[in-house]
Structure formats: C-alpha cells, structure tokens
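Contributing new records

If you add data, match the layout below exactly. Sequence lines come first and carry their own label; structure lines follow with theirs. Keep one chain per record. Anything else will be rejected by the validation script.
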Amino acid sequence: MPLSPHESPSPEGTWADRLSSLARELRGDLSAEREKAILSELWLLISTRLSRHLQAQCRRLGWVEPEDLEDLVSEKALDLLRRIDSHDWDPVSTSPGETISFFVSVARNGLIDHHRKQSRLRARRERTKEVIVQRIAAQAPDTAVDHKAFSSALVDCAAKLRPRHRLVWIFRTFYDMPSREIAHHPNVETTPGNVDVILGRCRSRLKTCLEAKGFHASNLAPGCYAAVWCAFFLDHPSAEEKSDV
C-alpha cells in the first residue's frame, strides 16, 4: 500500500522529528539547565524553519523588508513555543509531513496578514498626505508651492541619512530628547557625546543637501516636518523602536 503524503519520507523530516523529540522531552521532569537548553534548541529550530518558509512564500506573495521578515519570524516562533508549552499545538502527536505542512501554513498566513496590515498603513498614509496637501493648498499660492517643494526636498535629504543617524536626528527634532536619553535607546546604544557628533553630522548633511536643491534650512516653514513624519513613520508606527539601525 503506498504511503500517504504525510507518511512519505522527506529530507525535511529530520528536523520535524527532532522538534517532536524535543517537545516530548520538555514534558518530563527536567532540571532548569536542561529545560533552558531544550527551549534554546527549539527556538533555533523553529525560527530557522519559519525563516526558510517565509522566504519561500515571499517569492509567491510579495517581497518584505528584511527587518519586517525578522520580526515575523520572531513573532511566529515565540507564538509556536507558547503553543507547545500550553499544548495548543502538539508536534509530538503529528507526523513529520503534518508538521512541515503546518509550518508552511503558518508562514503563508503570517505573510498574508503582514501584507494586509501594510496595505492599511499605506492607505492611512495617503489619507494623511491628502489632509496635509489640502492644508498647504489653503495657504497663499506661492507659499503653498514653496512649502510643498521644501517638504519634498527635506524628505529626500533625510532619506539619504543613515537609518541610525536619521533616528537620532528625529528623536531630537520631533521629541526634543536629550542626548543621554537618545544614547540609551536600544536602537541607538552609544554615548551622549557620540549622539552630539551624529546630530552635528546630520544637520551639516541636511544643510548641504538642501542647499544643493536650492533651499536653506533657515527657510523651514511650519508643518514641513509633517512630511518627514509621513515618510518615515506612517508605514512603521513604531519606527522609533524598530528602525533598521
């Protein structure tokens, strides 16, 4: 009698068997050290397989930023570990083929949800831009044109900064955070002195970039920073915590 798809031997079955073995051992009476070792191996095993399946799904469902992909892997891996611990998902009682199919499904559904969320964020971004454009249009015609051109130039120049340096500049510009607080942020992690150096470089490069486009930083009009906010924050509401440093 031929084997069913879930019973067919597969080169990937080895990792699925290992996953089942670790989950079974986790149910026993273990020392704290052994439990920690099992959880570490489970995390590595699950996150590695999810990463591969997510990358494969990206070729079918659409490209994802590397940092977003890493976040998806971590989120889904943590969820699966919790489900193993709570017995909501039991890899011990499933065949290797079923485990592999389950991981493919988790990756596919996670990627679909991600793309849907990004679509909603882009729509919100466009609505916010429309409001900003309408407010600019309500100004005197020449002022509106200058304002829009300067805003576009500022966004373009800010985009050329290193992500980590841009984050430091935004922290100071938008939140007026002191150098020490910026330095201790997990996505910066440097010294207050280096924060000041980074800020000086950012201001100098922005000034040079704006002047090359025919603008001067002293001409900054109220509301120009809203364009920067739209460009770097609306697609990533927690960009200050997730910046690609």
